[in-house]
Specification:
Blueprint lengths: L13 E5 L2 E5 L9 H6 L6 H17 L4 H13 L10 E3 L2 E6 L8 E6 L6 E5 H5 L6 E7 L5 E7 L6 E7 L4 E16 L5 E7 L5 E8 L8 E5 L6 E6 L5 E7 L4 E7 L8 E2 L9 E5 L4 E6 L8 E6 L9 E4 L5 E9 L2 E8 L2 E8 L5 E4 L7 E4 L9 E7 L6 E6 L5 E6 L11 E9 L5 E9 L10 E4 L17 H4 L4 E5 L9 H5 L7 H16 L8 E6 L1 H12 L4 E7 L5 H6 L6 H8 L6 H10 L13 E6 L8 H13 L6 E6 L12 H16 L5
Parallel strand pairs: 32-33, 32-34, 34-35, 35-36, 36-37
Antiparallel strand pairs: 1-2, 3-4, 4-5, 5-6, 7-8, 8-9, 9-10, 10-11, 11-12, 12-13, 14-15, 15-16, 16-17, 18-19, 19-20, 20-21, 22-23, 23-24, 24-25, 26-27, 27-28, 28-29, 30-31, 31-33
Family: Belongs to the peptidase S9A family.
Keywords: Hydrolase, Protease, Serine protease
Pfam families: Peptidase_S9, Peptidase_S9_N
């Protein structure tokens, strides 16, 4: 242990002055000047930077060497809980039913179809074969044409999320010459099955254009349909459930604007629904006839409402409430089928699905009795259908896929997630507890532990948190976490402010000026779990990724002695420098979420007050394990690299700070369903090692 020395990065101070404040960054040199080129070709990384990252990986290998057998055991356990020859429930569309299927041993899926009522299976795409020999491969998306003759699909083979779209002739079982680089990966087919719409990604990794491609024509002739002029807005393309309209959506984190194109007239100009208005969000579906339905937070509907308007004049002046705003009932999504509306909403922290008859307004809900669970709509290719598909799970209950007859109310269980190595739900306990925050709020915490785990403070705890963008962390089934729970860990999810578990207000209460509430809530949840005997202070492993990784950096600064260890995946820890750099992929679109420190002194001071990198100090820090990806366009590799370098220079303890950077992957880590397990095993082995549970 004493012979292993972590790499210490050289200090090369760079001073910038912002709002009269000198910012000194000793490790800015780790940011490659040609980072945009590196996203496309990792071999172009500066050799000096690569040498430092290689040294980080070498130290990780050395520190974790005594856990190699444990890692293998963890991978074997987690793989043993995966049904290797798994397949999705076929989803019908016209004459066919489409599905994905994994073969035993395959890392990536096959896309297949059969005739609607069954018959021989037709192979459409073999992603595992396409990935062969590549260090990274991700199938971005796949969409069949309305006439079922073509399949547009996209791939990313660097992890940088620059997707190449290709088109396969399904009759000939061969790709056409059409190949479109630098896209977001998704397509929306026109009704003619001869053209489709897609989103272009520019050099700064922003979606700025929607284009239309005609099959058989050069990409250079693709028609620009829409250009988003505001660098702070993303744009994307989709279709309404009816298939009648192409939807062009422009949005940031608080404002949206939608345009429609008649799918039967793909060369027509986009038609604006209603102009963007700051902090007003909306999304749209049509009823297949003469009206559109809109999910929106307009008119102060904080938890959203649903309105409709005439298709001929869908502007905001004509919006009429259909499902009125009800505080505390957060409407998450909405779909329109022939004669019916289906919405997913959350009430009292738990999700439910509501079916509404459009003609009568009659509603009924689908819900479940467990204390904590996850519920999600699975989508449908068809509009004129009585069946909606949803997935249900809880921390103790494997995922179940149901088809629900909206006419009769009957549920048909189509699939239950299999755990080949065995799973007995009664061996585990799921609970939802409420942790008191300092300001009087109550923070929901979902718990999972074995029924025989002692609740006397002796158990270690893995406490997970995210708390950003209004994203709720579902109380769903995870085969991976069982490897810790079966070794005596209590697993906890802190549903902290910044998510939307308690309605939209819960998100706003952890956003921008209120961001410190996110960190305080996580610390409050940890202290509550210790006080109640679920664990004890110093035996809590804090875990978060991306924006949740920023949470990890903040709570490590604020309460270092509370944590037995910190696991931070692709952590957004260099917040101030990133938000000051408008050339980075997500910076302008992220200003509404975090604040704009370029223009606002108040935003600058706020972010500077909590940004993990700037707030590192001379103190003891807990053991830390950090995962990063070289081609990550969301949280660039240099953020965690700089953070760990500065932390090592300041800390006063002998605890290990270990970083593993995947040199062949981006934000999502390793590709392939089994390779992913290796990175999870690294994290878990570190947690088990430092908590004395590695045997």
């Amino acid at each position: 242990m004493t012979e292993m020395k972590p790499p210490f990065a050289e200090k090369r101070p760079v001073v910038t002055t912002v709002h009269g404040v000198d910012l000194v960054d000793d490790y800015a040199w780790l940011r490659a000047d040609n980072w945009q080129d590196v996203l496309r070709d990792p071999d172009l990384l500066d050799p000096g930077i690569r040498a430092h990252l290689d040294a980080e990986n070498a130290f990780c290998d050395a520190y974790m060497a005594d856990t190699v057998d444990l890692q293998k055991a963890l991978v074997a356990e987690m793989r043993g809980r995966i049904q290797e020859d798994d397949s999705s429930v076929p989803l019908p569309d016209g004459p066919y039913a489409y599905a994905s299927r994994y073969l035993t041993g395959a890392q990536h899926p096959r896309l297949v179809r059969t005739l609607r009522d069954g018959g021989p299976e037709e192979l459409l795409l073999d992603a595992d074969e396409m990935a062969r020999g590549k260090p990274y491969f991700s199938l971005g998306g796949a969409s069949h044409s309305p006439d079922h003759k073509l399949l547009a699909y996209s791939v990313d083979d660097t992890g940088s999320e620059f997707h190449v779209i290709r088109v396969r002739d399904l009759d000939a079982d061969a790709d056409l010459p059409d190949e479109i680089p630098n896209t977001a990966g998704g397509v929306a087919w026109a009704a003619d099955s001869r053209s489709f719409f897609y989103t272009y990604v520019n050099d700064n990794h922003r979606t700025e254009k929607v284009l239309r491609h005609v099959i058989g024509t050069p990409t250079s002739e693709d028609i620009v349909v829409y250009v988003e002029e505001d660098s702070g807005f993303f744009c994307g393309v989709d279709k309404t459930q009816s298939g009648r309209f192409i939807v062009i959506d422009s949005h940031d984190h608080q404002t949206s604007e939608v345009r429609l194109i008649d799918a039967a007239a793909p060369d027509s100009s986009p038609r604006l629904v209603t102009a963007r208005e700051t902090e007003v969000e909306y999304s749209i579906e049509d009823d297949g006839d003469d009206r559109v339905y809109i999910l929106t937070n307009a008119d102060g509907a904080e938890d959203f409402k649903i309105v409709n308007a005439p298709l001929k004049n869908p502007g905001r002046d004509n919006w009429v409430d259909v499902v009125a705003h009800e505080p505390g009932r957060l409407i998450l999504s909405m779909s329109i089928f022939q004669g019916r509306m289906v919405r997913l909403e959350r009430v009292g922290g738990l999700p439910r699905i509501v079916i509404r008859e459009l003609s009568s307004g009659h509603e009924h809900a689908i819900s479940f009795p467990e204390e904590a669970y996850s519920l999600g709509l699975s989508g449908s290719y068809e509009f004129d259908t009585n069946v909606v598909r949803f997935t249900y799970s809880s921390p103790t209950t494997p995922a179940q896929v149901y088809d629900y007859d909206m006419s009769t109310g009957e549920r048909f269980l189509r699939k239950t997630q299999e755990v080949p190595s065995g799973h007995e739900p009664t061996n585990y306990v799921t609970r939802r507890v409420m942790a008191p925050a300092a300001d009087g709020e109550s923070v929901p915490v979902t718990l999972l532990y074995r029924a025989d785990t002692p609740l006397d403070g002796s158990a270690p705890c893995l406490l997970y948190g995210y708390g950003a963008y209004g994203i709720a962390i579902p109380a769903s089934f995870s085969t991976r976490i069982l490897s810790l729970v079966d070794r005596g860990f209590v697993y906890a999810i802190a549903h902290i402010r910044g998510g939307n578990e308690k309605g939209h207000r819960w998100y706003l209460a952890g956003k921008r000026d209120n961001k410190p509430n996110t960190f305080k809530d996580f610390i409050a949840a940890a202290r509550y779990l210790a006080a109640e005997g679920f664990t004890s202070e110093g035996r809590i492993v804090a875990h978060g990724g991306s924006a949740g990784g920023m949470l990890m950096g903040a709570v490590a600064n604020l309460a270092p002695s509370l944590w037995g260890a910190v696991l931070a995946a692709v952590p957004f820890v260099d917040v101030l420098n990133t938000m000051l750099d408008d050339t980075l992929p997500l910076t302008p679109p992220e200003w509404p979420e975090w604040g704009n420190p370029v223009e606002s002194i108040a935003d600058f001071q706020l972010i500077a007050s909590y940004s993990p990198y700037e707030n590192l100090m001379t103190q003891a820090y807990p053991p830390m394990f950090v995962l990063a990806g070289l081609t990550d366009p969301r949280v660039t590799y240099w953020e965690p690299a700089k953070w760990i370098a500065r932390l090592r220079a300041l800390k006063t303890d002998d605890n290990p700070q270990v970083m593993h950077i995947n040199m062949d992957a981006g934000h999502g880590g390793a590709s392939g369903r089994f390779d992913e397990l290796k990175e999870t095993a690294l994290e878990y082995a570190f947690a088990l090692k430092v908590m004395g549970r590695a045997k």
